[in-house]
Amino acid sequence: MKYLYLVIFFSLCVSNQTEAQVPRKIFVEHFTNTLCSFCASRNPGFYNNLNNQNDVVHLSIHSGTPYTQCFLYQQNASSSDARRFYYGITGTPALVLNGFAIPAATNYNQTSLFTPFQSQTSPISIRVEQQKYGSDSIRVRVVVKTEAMHSLGTEQLWVGLAEDTVFYAGPNGETEHYDVYRVNLGFVPINIPLAVGDSLVYSYTAFSNTNWDFNRIFAFAMVQNTSNQSVTQSESTSPSTNNLTVNSQKLESPLNRVLIYPNPTTNALNVRLENDLETSVVLYNSIGQVVQQLKFKESGELFLGDLAKGIYSIRLSNRKGIITRSVVLK
Prior knowledge:
Shape: globular
CATH architecture of the largest domain: Sandwich
Signal peptide: 1-20
Number of strands: 20
Radius of gyration: 21 Å
Distance between the termini: 72 Å
Number of domains: 2
Domain Secretion system C-terminal sorting: 260-326
Structural class: mainly beta
CATH superfamily of the largest domain: Immunoglobulins
Low-confidence stretches: 1-17, 247-252
CATH topology of the largest domain: Immunoglobulin-like
Protein name: Secretion system C-terminal sorting domain-containing protein
Keywords: Signal
């Protein structure tokens, strides 16, 4: 009987070690505007508060309200609008922490702003890898891994690029703008694996923009609940990160050898595989809506001429795996 107790105790210890939830980072969406005088007066105190916090992923999203003339908004208008509309933001400055809108009257200087979101855990982890190629392109890979048992349903994965500091003299007097949201790489629904240890892998490629300081660009990723907008997990890199495990057998998938061209495109988009497996293709817009889908073997073609110009996410899946890439429609 003592031996049986020892076996049970050992099994419970192993289970707890292998199925432990992990710390949940705080994902901050900070809506601001370079013509907003209230932003200029409230942002410094918020940044002082932010700099004293740990395990936070911060994004400045320059909003088209109250002023569409905001220079940084105009450089990423459609993607910034998508986040503003998602939460129903009507003014600036505004804060959304882990998917929950903070009342406008809240004192952004107080450390208690972050208290409700600290010491939380999540059943999933996110690893973000990036590799910069010279000064003109970046490759990003996101690994979403199940760390503990869960009952999560369909979630949204959002991946993008931001610039850690933009030096620009705004009309409101602000001259430095931090973690500026620059481009959406993908916003797609995902089903988190149930088995502990299983992962989903997504790959993206993006090209530099003349408005960016490419040396200051970093990647971020977050997974968000589709029903209540709460953020399940988030992660980011630093501008100097170059940790993409190109030769990793664990992450490599036959679907990574797909050819999608031309990209950017003005109309038709061709997809070609190295095998003849039936493959599903779904094209999403910047707010995660399905705009086209089809199934094919070996090769397929999508016609995008009727869609609005912008950045789309294309998701390919078959029994060999799933990948997501960014597509630019000019």
